[in-house]
Amino acid sequence: MSLIPEVTDHSPLIEVENLWVRYKMRHLTMNAVRGVSFHLGREKLAIVGESGSGKSTVGRALLQLLSDNADVTADVMRFGDFDLRTASEKQMQKIRGAHISMILQDPKYSLNPVITVGEQIAEAYRVHTRASRKEAKARTIEMIKAVQIRNPERVYDLYPHQVSGGMGQRIMIAMMLIAEPDIIIADEPTSALDVTVRLQILAILDDLVQDRGIGLMFISHDLNLVRSFCDRVIIMYGGQIVETIAAKDLDKVQHPYSQGLLNSLPSLEHQREFLPVLDRDPAWMQQMEVRK
Q1: pLDDT tens sequence across 90-116
Q2: Pair 267, 134 in one domain
Q3: Structural domains in the chain (count)
Q4: Which residues pair with 187 in a beta bridge?
Q5: What is the pLDDT of residues 187-230, one digit of tens each?
Q6: Cα distance between the two ends of the chain
Q7: pTM, rounded to two decimals
Q8: How many CB atoms lie within 10 A of CB 59?
Q9: Distance (Å, rounded) from C-alpha 18 to C-alpha 131?
Q10: Paired strand residues for 159
């Protein structure tokens, strides 16, 4: 079976049904993701929620990047016509980077400290192509420039500790984009960037979705950002999806948790003396247990 998904313009790139992720501890089992179902087309799909809601775990589960004590099950977990549930590690090595890339949140823990950032980006390119070292370096310098880093020839020879947090984040983005994947899973990709650079990076991602028809899974805490940037929004709580809505209709959410997230945002237009604290109802988790 080909690793390249056979999909039409209107069929989903990713299909997930009833995804569970359970971490097996010594004396208990923790459910990190509970019965999640969604699809990703050629669009910008946001996954939002508090820390610990399961957002990043969903993205890592798709690429088999969870720890050994994670038990991942699903009725369907498919990339095009390729079954991600039964893929071997050898097959996943061909999927990761070339077809599905994941931009991780913190470059300090993702970049090799003893290899220059340019060599690391070039290696990501050569793994998935037959490019020579010279061709890979030229392509890497182009990519470094594309993510709005000045003097890319100099930056190519820097080590991770010699670049700022924001530059490290852009280097990670360049590394994930250089192989031109079909899907990008972006986990807080702009969290370390200032406003101006953030807009530049978002413009790059937007161009990829619009021009190349890729699918973007955008994991974020920033509701205002996903409202203006994404097409659809999935809202997660306690490892489960509580609501899915068009980004332009985010103000019309129905679930009390979704409403609580929106109400906790400060607003220049509607100033309040105090921001309300999100009041979690234990019944939300009980409802999830009933749906098992």
Answers
A1: 999 989 988 999 988 776 678 999 999
A2: no
A3: 2
A4: 219
A5: 988 876 778 778 888 888 888 788 888 899 999 988 888 999 99
A6: 33
A7: 0.87
A8: 20
A9: 40
A10: none
